[in-house]
């Protein structure tokens, strides 16, 4: 049963209730596309020039690819600036868990007109899997100086604020009451706090990070100018802290942080209350 105001149970074309991604994935392709299209913000459609009610632009080129295999409880939505090439403007991966939760596995949003920063490959050009298999320091420096967060290859489109309410309503319409995720970086975790998430695991770590970046803390003392990612003053912003953590300033790798959002409930968590706002 849907909980959000003016929301209702998601139904297939025959009027049967849909309660999982697996149930949606049993539908024929055109109906799957209709159902999953509700996750596309209008501004994304405008940026791509999509025709009304379509996944194609005015030239008839299909720019949205929805991968939703029958028998599986996952969906991947890819939106490109040009068909089969160009920048992936929007990448979304969702799955529903055995505990009837919606897992937000990935959400990547890029401005196709912004410069590219090759932080996603090592210095030999090999995919580094979010810097877990090597880093590209020159490109990371370019990205940081351009105002990007770790692992960002382009500036964003400021679309998450438009996308998240669509995801919440979609999840609610399936009768699912919780969204879960694993933030890949410190700045991701802080961003999710803004959208009402709480911590299944990692809240103590986030509070420890805030404490140790205060004057006299371990991480504060390591902002000693020994690398461009560890400059004094970086403790004051989310970006500065995130780049320092990406550079290995912590005593352990960033890992195993899990978060959740109850549908219709903002948790009110803020583990970095003294941060300076950044212009982006």
Short description:
This protein is α+β, with helices and mostly antiparallel strands.
Description of the structure:
- The chain has 280 residues and is of the alpha+beta class.
- The chain has a domain at 1-112 and 175-181.
- The chain is built from 9 helices and 7 strands.
- A 7-stranded mixed β-sheet has the order 1-2-3-4-5-7-6.
- The protein is globular.
What's the arrangement of secondary structure elements?
Elements: H1 21-25, H2 29-36, H3 42-48, E1 64-67, E2 74-82, E3 85-96, E4 102-109, H4 137-145, H5 160-173, E5 178-181, H6 186-194, E6 198-201, H7 203-212, H8 218-222, H9 238-246, E7 258-262
Parallel strand pairs: 4-5
Antiparallel strand pairs: 1-2, 2-3, 3-4, 5-7, 6-7
Q: Keywords for this structure?
A:
16% strand; 9 helices; 7-stranded mixed beta sheet
Give, in spatial order, the strands making up the sheet with the most strands. Answer: 1-2-3-4-5-7-6
Give a count of the beta strands, DSSP E runs of length 2 or more. Answer: 7
| Cα separation of the termini | 39 Å
**Mind summarizing the main beta sheet?**
7 strands, mixed
Helix content: 25-40%
The gyration radius over C-alpha positions equals 20 Å
Instruction: Indicate the overall shape.
Output: globular
Question: β content, as a range?
Answer: 15-25%
Number of H/I helices? 9
How would you state the average pLDDT, rounded?
94
- Structural class of the secondary elements? alpha+beta
Unreliable sequence segments: none
Give the helices and strands as they follow along the chain: HHHEEEEHHEHEHHHE
């Amino acid at each position: 049963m849907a909980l959000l105001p003016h929301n209702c149970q998601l139904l297939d074309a025959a009027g049967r209730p849909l309660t999982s991604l697996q149930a949606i994935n049993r539908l024929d392709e055109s109906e799957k596309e209709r159902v999953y299209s509700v996750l596309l913000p209008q501004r994304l459609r405008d940026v791509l020039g999509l025709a009304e009610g379509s996944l194609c632009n005015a030239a008839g080129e299909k720019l949205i690819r929805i991968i939703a295999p029958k028998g599986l409880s996952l969906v991947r939505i890819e939106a490109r600036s040009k068909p089969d090439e160009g920048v992936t403007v929007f990448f979304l991966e969702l799955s529903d868990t055995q505990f009837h939760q919606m897992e937000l596995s990935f959400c990547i949003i890029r401005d196709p007109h912004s410069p590219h920063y090759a932080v996603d490959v090592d210095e030999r050009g090999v995919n580094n899997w979010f810097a877990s298999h090597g880093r590209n320091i020159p490109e990371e420096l370019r990205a940081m100086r351009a105002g990007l967060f770790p692992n960002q290859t382009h500036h964003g489109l400021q679309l998450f604020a438009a996308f998240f309410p669509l995801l919440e309503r979609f999840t609610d319409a399936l009768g699912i009451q919780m969204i879960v995720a694993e933030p890949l970086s410190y700045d991701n975790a802080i961003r999710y706090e803004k959208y009402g998430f709480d911590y299944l695991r990692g809240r103590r770590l986030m509070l420890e990070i805030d404490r140790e970046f205060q004057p006299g803390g371990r991480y504060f003392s390591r902002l000693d100018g020994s690398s461009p990612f560890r400059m004094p003053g970086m403790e004051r912003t989310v970006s500065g802290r995130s780049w320092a953590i990406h550079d290995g300033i912590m005593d352990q790798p960033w890992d195993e942080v899990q978060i959740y959002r109850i549908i219709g409930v903002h948790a009110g968590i803020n583990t970095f209350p003294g941060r300076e706002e950044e212009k982006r």
